[in-house]
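Re: the multi-chain job from yesterday

Posting the exact lines I submitted so nobody has to dig through the queue logs.
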Amino acid sequence: MSRIKDFTVYVIDDEEDIRISLTRSLTKRGYKVESFTSAESFLDTYDQSKSGCLLLDYGMPDMNGLELQEKLIKMEISVPIIFMTGHGGIPQSVQAIKAGAIDFLEKPFKQKVLLEAIKVAFERAAIVNQDTEDAKALKAKFETLTTREKEIAQFIVQNPADTSSKNIGRQLDVSPRTIDHHRARVLEKMDVTSVAELIEKALRSNLFSS
Amino acid sequence: MKLSLGAILAIWLSGLQFVAVLSVVSFYFVSSERVLLDHATTLIGEVGRSSTEHSKGFLEPAIRATELAKRLIESDIVDSSNTEELEKLLFQQMQVVPQLSGIYYGDDQGNFVYVMRSEEHAEFRTKLVSRDNENVHTELIWRDGDYNIAEFTVDPTDKFDPRVRPWFMDAKKKQNFVWTSPYIFFSSQRPGITAAIPILSASGQFEGVIGVDIEIDEISRFLSNLNIGDSGVAMALSSDRDVIAHPNSTFIRETDETNTLKFVKIDQIEDLVAREAFGNLPNFNQVASEQEIEAEFKYNDGKYASILIPGSNHDLPWSIAIYAPLSDFIGGIEENRTRNIWIAMFIAMVTGLIGLKIANKINQPIRDFAVRAGLVASGEASKSLANTQTYPELEEVSETLASEIAQRKTFERIYGLTFSLASRGMAQIAPNDGHFIRVNQQLGDILGYTTKEMAGMSIFDILHPEDADSYISFQKTMFEDYEYNQEKRYIRKNGEIVWLQVNAFLIRDHQGEPMYAVATIDNRTAQKKAESKINELSRDLSHFARVNMMGQMAEGLAHELNQPLTSLTQNVDAALLTVNELPNPDPELVEILNDMDRQAHHGAEIIRALRGLVRKDEGEQTNFDLSELLDQTLQLLKPEANEHEISISFKEQDIPNVFGNRVQVAQVIMNLTRNAIEAVEASSANERQIVIETYLRDKFIEVHVIDTGPGIDPNVDLFAQFESSKRDGMGLGLSLSRTLIEANGGKIWFEPKNKGRSRFCFTIPTAVIN
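And the result, structure tokens for all chains:
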């Protein structure tokens, strides 16, 4: 479990006073804070392995907040984002939230609101991390299977409607008895108790996504 | 109805000759009959008169014989008292005059000598009655032609007294020649008549009477031998209405109840036609004394003519009566007449046909001419009028006509083409009542009527109620010979209002009378709509500008103020934490910091409220035609550009509709173009031009506003608020434009000067097709 001390808040704003004051107050609250003058400079130095969230100004010259959000989604970087705006109430907030933003804060915002948002972001990041770790573990277990077992496991996950030995055997041209035997081995090696658990875990970890 | 020349000719030629033939025939019909009837009457009259003459000739010898005897006695050549001498005298007369059946002399003493023709014993017989007082001696002597006695007898029973006989008494009484009424001789049973003449002494003393008996059977024979037509009848009538002679001698005798023979009365004769002709004459005595009576009458469908010639005029003891059927005289003629009428009708028909033929022949060239003229007039034949046979007079006319028609056709065609092919509506309008004489299809289309429908309409039918007075000004202008040129509202068939630019002038004929007004009509509705749209846009823009300028300023201020306020609150938060970290934090300082935080937020609230107060509603986003909007917006800027002698050109492209707030986009176009105008205006370059271009880029339309101005100072942050390269600029225009474009989902940017041209560009998303 990651701890709040390891959690980094990335402040991105073109205004220096904002960067300084936010860094100051959040650092006082015990967060690690890194600040950037633009979206581009953030992208240049961002380390994916670190747990954290973005405190992102919407209205910046060159690449604005929304564009950065879009870019991160494209790069499959699932870092939580909290938007800030000096204009307030603009329609783009909806778009940002839809794309997964934690919140859209109108400057100046109450400290309580900001901390609440960061807390949500921290939890979101924790879940993401957990999932990532689970997926890694599942993947490792999957690699221990034989080729036939991998084949059967993949078939079960991708055809959850009919997981009977008969059906699997017909599709893979193997006898149902052999399937029964293999399936028991798969469940044992993957450390799950049922076919349903196997399917649920595999789907959550995107085991066969590609 | 007007008759054609052919009909007139036919009617006159055939009708005239028909009337001529008819009148000749009927004149002949009437006059020939009259002549024939006259002829018949004359003929009958002639017959009557000749009959009268014949009668006279028949009777004359008898009369002469009596007169001779009278003279002989009176001149004492024959002694009347000498019976022998007297008998001899009378015998001689009998021999000389065959008409006489007997001659006699009776004197006042009752003596009587009578010589008559006899059929027994000898040729003649004499009766001698001598009277001496009451002793009467009667001798009968028969003699032959040589006066020899053949027989002699005395008849003591015969007491004949001449003095009581009618002839004696008549003659004695009248002292003149008398005829007795005709009678029928007892002995011969033949009709006869007695003439008597008194004998006077030298001293004028009445001595006796000489009488003669004349058989008038001869008259009947004569009359029956007369040819009066085929069946005409001549009769002799006595003054007592007795028929004394008739071609059929059996008709005239009858026996009465005493078994004596007598004449038949005219009204009882078996000849019924004669009865009809003469039986009704009321008083024959009177009639007999009058002039000839001619008459025509009908009997049993037959027409008859009759004549009555009274004998008294001719010293005759009877009248001659003649009747004859007219058919005897005109029958043949009538037949001939019927034949003639048939012939005349035939001739009339033949000549009528000939007349028609002639009329046709005379008329043919004229008809041909008319047909060809018609063809030429309707444009179906060329002007080859002179090709066929015609009259020289018509040839000239036809040549003239052909060229006239050709000219007129050309004019008509050109005019008609002008009229119907005109791109604008055209109409001929009657200036008095405003009805449409002629309209072209285009006008019909403009007003939604067919040209046929419009032909029955007047300008009042399409006038807008609020512009109804425009016709009065139209009429007034027309009659004053000015050109009418006005833009007014009119009503289409479907009730829509159209703005029509009507340009009209009056055409007068050669006498200066107004014929019609020619009007050209342009539909200005679209322009009107465009104008009103532009005006609306202009109104919207100015309103938008007014509201947005404040809104923009408030927005800008809010942003500018919110940044420091954010830093302030963050710093206060950090300060509070710092203070609270102290071993003995000053509660007053904590309170001050909390107040600062609250007041900073309060300031932000005020700014937010101000912004909400002036922020115009974001406005509805719709699909709209960007080209149209560009056009309209540029129209608004034209006067400004013209003032600075700058040309604005917009190359309209076929681009899809865009989605956004129309007025906001218009405001951006306005801002950019106005900036461009100001930039070009400040430039000294020869080229003073602004070009607007549009491009379709994926899901956006890109608009470029290109100018030949001096370009932008690269140090200026163009789209930032309160920054301007213009001396008197507030720096709001472009920042506002950016706000607006971004609010509409687009982008705005500047491309620096390249090849003498700078461009401001923005995008706007294309419409989403539902």
